[in-house]
Write a structure and sequence with these properties.
This protein is about 85% helix and about 0% strand. With about 375 residues, the protein is mostly helical. Helix 4 (about 75-105) runs parallel beside helix 9 (about 220-255) and helix 6 (about 120-150) runs parallel beside helix 8 (about 180-205).
Length: about 375
């Protein structure tokens, strides 16, 4: 822990800074090139990936925790069964989901308020972004190795490449061709492929004993994975109702322009939540390893420290963002958006308390995993 913690923390901070830079720079860039109404469709499509995650998270969310236990206990046979059971089941689900994705994209203009001149482009946008998410779900099987060995620095490196390459591909495509939603979708897909390649490389490097082999598929293990993942699905549904439904409601009730304005302000809430996720992500593998080795006292001690530092660390940026909301919006996007300052304060002020307990969220699945393993 002591040797790897500085690397993990440094890479998490680097990932957070990259995400902040991408978010703060890319939003006004897209708004100025596409218009606020067309831009509003991009975060809306991103939010729908969380709905797709309800189907995939039952497997992709559980593999890291089960694989960590197997690898830390040097049980490579079971680790191969865990990996292949999750990989082949998730692959089958994604292949079966592709026809549904094609059908769904045809109804995008019916389900959402889309500008008349963006109807065709919106279909490609939703298809590309959801397709990139499905590829990322497959990547999670390979990325579980970095989690299992507490190599979050490698995991974060792949995520940094994905974020940075997305911006690079957007700029390249906008420069070579024209600023369109189709090019945004293509850039998102290319970035997902880049991250996938890195996760696969790290998987081969860290876990040479694992192999892709359908003969390792284990129906009994699938039951454990899905039972554990069932609670992740419940958590994901609650997350959708709490944090993701607002973009759809605003688009349906107030139109694409209001949806674009709301989405631009929502970026600050997402950045702060991303900061909390990055900070809490440092201790997640430490929780898992402590659990795997039966070190309950260390787990509790780390959890208390994480909550305390999380609350204190986020209070200052949240306070500054609320106090200077009007000035931030003016400098960031333009003076015409300063009217949204009250909305921004309402979105951010409660995060001081809500985000402080983020590290504890990763402990709850471990308790259910213990119930499964003891059965």
């Amino acid at each position: 822990f002591l040797r790897q913690f500085p690397k993990n923390l440094g890479s998490n901070i680097a990932l957070f800074l990259v995400n902040i830079g991408v978010g703060l720079w890319l939003v006004p860039y897209l708004i100025h090139n596409l218009g606020v109404a067309a831009y509003g469709l991009i975060p809306l499509a991103m939010s729908l990936t969380h709905y797709v995650a309800v189907v995939t998270i039952a497997l992709s969310g559980g593999i890291a925790r089960f694989l960590t236990i197997d690898l830390q206990q040097k049980d490579f046979d079971r680790a191969n069964r865990t990996f292949n059971t999750s990989f082949w089941t998730l692959t089958a689900i994604i292949v079966g989901f592709i026809p549904l994705l094609v059908i769904f994209t045809q109804f995008v203009p019916v389900l959402f308020n889309v500008p008349e001149d963006q109807i065709s482009s919106s279909k490609w946008l939703f298809a590309g972004i959801i397709g990139a998410f499905l590829l990322t779900s497959i990547s999670s099987c390979f990325g579980a190795s970095t989690f299992a060995y507490n190599r979050l620095d490698l995991r974060n490196l792949a995520n940094i490449v994905r974020s940075a390459s997305r911006v690079a591909f957007v700029i390249l495509l906008f420069t070579m061709f024209t600023p369109t939603l189709e090019n945004v979708a293509l850039a998102t897909l290319l970035a997902a492929f880049s991250a996938f390649a890195m996760h696969y490389f790290f998987w081969r490097k860290l876990t040479p004993d694992l192999q892709i082999n359908p003969t390792f598929f284990d129906k009994a293990l699938l039951k454990d994975l899905t039972t554990f993942g069932g609670w992740l699905v419940v958590n994901q549904v609650g997350y959708l109702l709490f944090l993701q439904i607002d973009l759809i409601v605003v688009n349906r009730l107030f139109g694409p322009t209001a949806g674009g304005e709301y989405a631009s302000v929502l970026q600050w809430s997402m950045l702060l939540r991303s900061m909390a996720a990055v900070l809490s992500g440092v201790v997640q593998p430490m929780f898992m390893i402590c659990y795997a080795k039966g070190q309950s006292k260390d787990l509790i001690r780390i959890a208390k420290m994480a909550v305390k530092f999380m609350g204190l660390g986020l209070a200052l940026p949240i306070g500054l963002a609320c106090g200077f909301s009007s000035e931030l919006l003016t400098v960031w996007i333009g003076p015409e958006f300063s009217k949204l300052a009250p909305l921004m304060m309402l979105m951010l002020v409660h995060l001081t308390i809500n985000l402080a307990v983020t590290p504890l969220f990763s402990i709850r699945p471990f308790l259910w995993a213990a119930v499964i393993l003891l059965r």
